[in-house]
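User: Let's play a game. I give you a shape written as tokens, and you guess the letters that built it. Ready? Here's round one.
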């Protein structure tokens, strides 16, 4: 997955840009070409490309379906003059109604912003294995895990749907089984996987010395138990446009996980910038008595989204949702 602009939902944003304010509109076909060129030249990782499958006019914008080789298209938007690209749109009305309904149905589901402190913070990080923003925060949090060691419990989990095709489902099965069978090797494997150029699972299994026989057995049993492959083939089980991944279904429901990444600390969903220094500060604020390791100087550079190493110019909290 190379496209950085993922996790997009259609929004009612026509009040912001009205068609009549556009002096030199382009045709839909021209907008498709312009969007495809812009995305491939500016937002894709080397060696990867997207294609534009279709476009239509929606509320004063062109809605463009982008395909990155996965099973589902991603909706993006471009102004009718072809000058402004919208990689992400949020339906404000729907979001506010969902939050209101959740709070009315279950008071515990209302948004929480204050950290709960404990002697040993419990960190649950929900990601999609091929979400560029999931891999971004994983790059930031692994040095924190190395720094704090057994003073925290870090558990990397997965959202209950996958946006990046069958390869994502298979990788998540594999990572789940590595955690289950050989937890001491998991962080080593994960670091290799997210820092490799294109998610080199096979190479990282060898590098981390993962027992492949145990892994294969576990993956087959887990796949059968949670019907991962079966549900992928049966689109009636999908969550909207994406296949389900039900291993952590109950935890997703408990915390209202709606995208990758979602960070939960001591049972509270928390936002944090994704550089290691910021994540260390956020997690250390959840200790009753922060250990001396919390004074460690870690990198303040935001990791680059997607696979590979390097830094990002932005530390924004974008998500795949």
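Assistant: Ready! My guess for every position:
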């Amino acid at each position: 997955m190379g496209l950085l602009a993922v996790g997009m939902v259609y929004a009612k944003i026509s009040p912001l840009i009205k068609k009549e304010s556009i002096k030199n509109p382009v045709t839909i076909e021209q907008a498709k070409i312009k969007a495809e060129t812009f995305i491939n030249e500016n937002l894709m990782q080397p060696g990867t490309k997207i294609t534009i499958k279709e476009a239509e006019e929606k509320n004063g914008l062109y809605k463009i379906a982008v395909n990155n080789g996965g099973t589902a298209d991603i909706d993006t938007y471009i102004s009718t003059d072809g000058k402004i690209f919208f990689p992400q749109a949020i339906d404000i009305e729907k979001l506010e109604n969902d939050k209101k309904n959740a709070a009315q149905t279950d008071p515990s589901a209302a948004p929480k912003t204050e950290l709960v402190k404990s002697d040993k913070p419990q960190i649950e990080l929900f990601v999609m294995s091929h979400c560029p923003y999931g891999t971004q925060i994983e790059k930031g949090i692994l040095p924190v895990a190395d720094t704090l060691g057994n003073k925290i419990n870090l558990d990397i989990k997965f959202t209950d749907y996958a946006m990046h095709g069958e390869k994502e489902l298979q990788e998540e099965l594999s990572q789940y089984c590595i955690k289950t069978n050989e937890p001491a090797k998991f962080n080593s494997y994960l670091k290799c996987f997210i820092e490799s150029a294109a998610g080199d699972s096979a190479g990282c299994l060898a590098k981390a010395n993962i027992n492949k026989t145990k892994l294969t057995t576990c993956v087959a049993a887990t796949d059968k138990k949670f019907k991962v492959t079966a549900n992928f083939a049966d689109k009636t089980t999908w969550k909207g446009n994406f296949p389900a991944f039900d291993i952590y279904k109950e935890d997703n429901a408990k915390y209202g996980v709606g995208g990758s990444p979602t960070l939960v600390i001591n049972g509270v969903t928390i936002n944090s910038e994704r550089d290691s220094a910021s994540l260390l500060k956020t997690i250390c604020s959840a200790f009753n008595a922060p250990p001396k390791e919390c004074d460690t100087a870690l990198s303040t550079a935001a990791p680059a989204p997607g696979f590979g190493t390097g830094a990002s110019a932005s530390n924004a909290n974008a998500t795949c949702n």
